[in-house]
Design goal:
By secondary structure, the protein is an alpha+beta fold. The protein is about 15% helix and about 30% strand. A hairpin with a 5-residue loop joins strand 1 and strand 2 (about 40-50). The N and C termini lie far apart (about 50 Å).
């Protein structure tokens, strides 16, 4: 009994070093990769088919198609993963013409064609297959998804490093998105909430809730207008150092597939002038200006925060986000652009950075909170032989207490005080290419973010999230915990403690083994506490909180220890509006 319990305790600790699916609270999470300067987009991995093949896809909240090149493609570029081999997946099937085909019929296949505003395009054939979100580390459950298999790529899609695009626009228009399929899988995801947290390098995507362990302030909520097929928000003004910069932003949308943040000429000039005026009266903000860039040897921490107001709700745009670092230098450039005198506003990846943005599709609202988002610069190796067995509630060492999520609140809520600026690295990356504010006219147009940082013509970056694979091989940090909890329950007892059982149950041998294992665990814990510190090309170190709280879709706040990705984290299961921490 003692040996078994001690071994189980050690195994539980090992699981905490990996990013596992949470079968108790039905939460999936995945690492995000990419960088605004080096990649011009953020992306994540999908495991497609049986046996699984890995495919990298830009994350784009401004389009709806998930598609990537197939091995049979006669005109597709060279990407960081091999082109998907349809013939090697026993679970793949082509979508036939007729009922169920959301495209046109060509060559006996249900076909699609997408053209993006910057001129790139993709076309191919629809098929369905089993898809797992994220890397093999997460072991997320498979779900049946309709996707596109490129037979032709042009321009940015041809040259980008990421294989394809994952469109996750609001549901209800055109072809169902991958998230429509995930939300329909009630056995594994029971809340229509997802969140993104973008850092200078990568970040994390969560489906089913959000991750409070990253938060450095209080969550505020704003309404989402989704009838247009985009995530539109009511941006009313920006304020800097107590002075209102502009109040005319047109229609604003949140688009992770656009690298920069785009706005009309008037608010663009007002924002630039406001930042530069502030720096002139504050010792140059510790930097030297050169055009739209600044030489800042000590980082951009002395630059002002910009208040971004959504009606009565105030949020902050930190300098680590509206300025992006060029490579590993001390040169930082504006991550926002002038899109013309009558343009609307696109809140792109550069606005999303260092915040966790929560999309609550139950009541059409967005949550915004300042966050120390995790950096990921290296993808794990993938051979196709990894164990992707989905964890079950019985295999998780903590009480299984699976209450359903509490009902979603009626409308968006408390305008909590502004979140604190994240302590993450000064050089929060920004974009080298960006998508024009108008998304593709054809259905759900996600701009293709070409991984061509050199291609400044990529001023129109399509679909949104890109990964940096292979080149930057920084030391792989532990995976962050399988985040948010949609359950309205939670036991206050520690799963680790209950797993080991009472000490009186150990025999003599068990005591010795337990002592050895305990010492090993303590050593590993200390080691992990050291390596959790994020390093970023000479930027200031950004450290994750060692004790984490993860929030799901609803419920009363209770504590619960859970096996996770990076650190032993303490979950807090709570409603999104009623239990927020007091404003800092």
């Amino acid at each position: 009994g003692g040996l078994w319990a001690a071994g189980l305790l050690l195994w539980q600790f090992v699981l905490q070093c990996r990013g596992l699916y949470d079968p108790v609270h039905h939460i999936e999470s995945a690492r995000i990769y990419g960088n605004i300067d080096s990649y011009a987009y953020y992306y994540m991995d999908l495991l497609i088919g049986t046996p699984p093949q890995r495919v990298s896809v830009i994350i784009d909240t401004g389009s709806g198609v998930t598609a990537f090149p197939c091995r049979s493609c006669p005109h597709c570029g060279h990407h960081i993963d091999p082109n998907f081999d349809f013939s090697k997946s026993s679970s793949a099937s082509w979508t036939s013409c007729g009922t169920g085909c959301h495209g046109s019929c060509g060559g006996g296949h249900c076909s699609y064609r997408q053209v993006y505003t910057e001129g790139s395009s993709i076309s191919g054939w629809y098929f369905t297959d089993d898809v797992r979100m994220g890397d093999a580390l997460q072991r997320n459950p498979p779900v049946r998804v309709s996707m596109g298999c490129h037979q032709d790529e042009n321009k940015l899609f041809y040259t980008q490093k990421a294989n394809g695009i994952m469109g996750i626009r609001p549901p209800g228009r055109g072809t169902p998105t991958i998230f429509d399929s995930l939300f329909a899988d009630k056995a594994h995801i029971d809340s229509q909430v997802f969140s993104m947290c973008l850092a200078e390098w990568g970040g994390r995507l969560v489906v089913g809730g959000y991750n409070q362990s990253y938060h450095t302030g209080s969550i505020v909520y704003i309404p989402l207008q989704v009838s247009s097929g985009y995530y539109q928000v009511g941006l009313t003004k920006m304020v800097l150092d107590g002075k209102t910069l502009a109040t005319r932003y047109g229609t604003a949308m949140i688009d992770s597939g656009t690298t920069y943040t785009y706005m009309a000429s008037e608010p663009y000039r007002a924002l630039r002038n406001g930042i530069e005026s502030y720096c002139r009266s504050h010792n140059g903000c510790g930097a030297r200006q050169s055009g739209t860039c600044w030489e800042a040897s000590s980082g951009v921490g002395n630059f002002p925060k910009v208040e971004v107001w959504f009606n009565e709700v105030k949020t902050f745009w930190v300098p680590q986000a509206y300025l992006y670092r060029k490579g590993s230098s001390n040169r930082y450039c504006y991550a926002f652009e002038d899109d013309g005198p009558r343009a609307n506003t696109v809140l792109g990846a550069s606005w999303m950075m260092w915040q966790e943005i929560m999309f609550d599709m139950r009541v059409n609202r967005a949550g915004i909170v300042a966050a120390n988002c995790p950096n990921y610069k290296q993808r794990p190796d993938f051979s196709g032989r990894e164990d992707v067995t989905v964890p079950t509630a019985a295999s998780v060492v903590h009480p299984v207490n699976t209450a359903l999520p509490a009902p979603a609140p009626a409308v968006a809520e408390p305008a909590a005080a502004a979140p604190a600026r994240p302590e993450a690295s000064d050089g929060a990356a920004a974009a080298t290419a960006a998508v024009n504010s108008q998304k593709a006219a054809a259905g759900s147009a996600a701009e293709d973010a070409a991984a061509a940082a050199q291609q400044q013509a990529a001023a129109a970056q399509h679909g949104g999230s890109g990964h940096m694979h292979g080149q930057e091989h920084a030391k792989e940090e532990p995976v962050s915990l399988p985040e948010p909890l949609p359950g309205a329950h939670a036991s206050s007892s520690s799963g680790l403690r209950s797993a080991s059982g009472p000490q009186s149950g150990f025999g003599g041998t068990g005591i010795v083994v337990a002592a050895v294992l305990g010492a090993t665990i303590l050593t590993l814990a200390l080691f992990r506490a050291i390596i959790v510190t994020r390093h970023d090309d000479g930027a200031k170190e950004a450290q994750r909180t060692p004790a984490a709280e993860v929030v799901g879709a609803g419920g009363d706040a209770k504590e619960e220890t859970h096996s996770g990705e990076d650190d032993p984290l303490v979950f807090v299961v709570q409603g999104p509006a009623s239990h927020d921490a007091p404003a800092e």
